[in-house]
Design a protein that fits this description.
Helices cover 15% and strands 33% of the residues. It has helices at 21-28, 34-42, 116-123, 156-167, and strands at residues 7-11, 46-48, 51-52, 64-68, 86-90, 94-99, 148-153, 174-180, 187-196, 204-206, 212-229, 235-247. Helix 1 (21-28) crosses helix 2 (34-42). The protein starts with 6 loop residues before the first strand and ends in a 6-residue tail after the last strand. The strands form 3 sheets. A 5-stranded antiparallel β-sheet has the order 8-12-11-9-10, with no helix packed on it. The chain has a 4-stranded antiparallel β-sheet with strand order 1-4-2-3.
């Protein structure tokens, strides 16, 4: 005997008339980001006035959107591991974990174990499945060699709310960086394009054309300069800077 899957019904208000279906649904279901709404539509879990529709379908005022809530995906077997975690904050809904450098966030090619997900499963079993089968609890990620705090959701409701807040840019993330040389301006914006290296396909690099746009705002907090003499008597200098960076478009790099 099968049980009926739960559903939610929304009526499109006048202020959302003329919007795409995925945008309207994200506006009506507070816990959904536009990406999550599109995923539900593409998966056949959404009807518009009782009919299947596409994410790009335009909605009219008074139209009925019905969302059938899909069952949570089965978790693949990712082995829990007894790895120490630096937990900055914890409650019944979420964890804030400080990820060390050189730790992969989740299992993947070259990182079958020893990841943050392995450590999280060793610490607690109640993690959100809303981010996908291979990423239990993960609301966002950091690159392998980047350290810093990560939000980890313990249930799907909080996961969707945090994802939507990040998509609406309500969550501010600041990165600290040490760089060689000092920028001419104390603050500014760097606009580049990132894509896979043409020869080393596992690496990302800055491209002259193609790839995806990456925008980073920076501010110089401190400058460093030191000098030394080489054995021949020539004086050399080197400069560096400590920056605070805000990623407007995060890209793997």
């Amino acid at each position: 005997m099968t049980s009926e899957r739960p559903s939610e019904t929304y009526t499109v208000p006048p202020e959302l008339a003329g919007e795409r279906l995925d945008i309207a649904l994200a506006g009506l279901a507070e816990e959904l980001s536009r990406t999550a709404a599109k995923r539900l539509i593409d998966g056949g879990n959404i009807t518009l006035d009782g009919q299947p529709a596409r994410p790009s379908t335009t909605v009219e005022a008074g139209a009925t959107i019905e969302m059938t809530i899909p069952p949570p995906p089965q978790q693949p077997h990712i082995a829990p591991e007894d790895i120490a975690l630096d937990i900055v904050y914890e409650d019944d809904d979420l964890l804030v974990v400080n990820k060390p450098p050189a730790m992969a966030v989740h299992p993947g090619p070259g990182h079958a174990g020893g990841t943050l997900v392995n450590a999280l499963l060793g610490y607690c079993q109640s993690l959100s499945a809303a981010g996908g089968e291979h990423r239990p609890g993960l609301v966002h990620r950091l690159d392998l060699h980047t350290s810093g705090v990560l939000l980890v959701a313990r249930n799907d409701r909080v996961h969707r709310q945090l994802s939507a807040a990040i998509e609406r840019r309500e969550v501010k993330r600041t990165y600290q960086a040490l760089v060689w040389e000092v920028a001419a301006q104390r603050r500014g914006r760097v606009v580049t394009r990132f894509g896979r290296h043409r020869r080393h396909r596992t690496l990302m690099t800055v491209l002259e054309a193609g790839g995806r746009e990456a925008i980073t705002d920076y501010q110089v907090e401190e400058e460093y300069c030191w000098a030394w003499r080489e054995p021949g008597g020539r004086e050399r200098t080197r400069r560096a800077a400590y920056l605070l960076c805000a990623l407007q478009t995060g890209r793997t790099h």
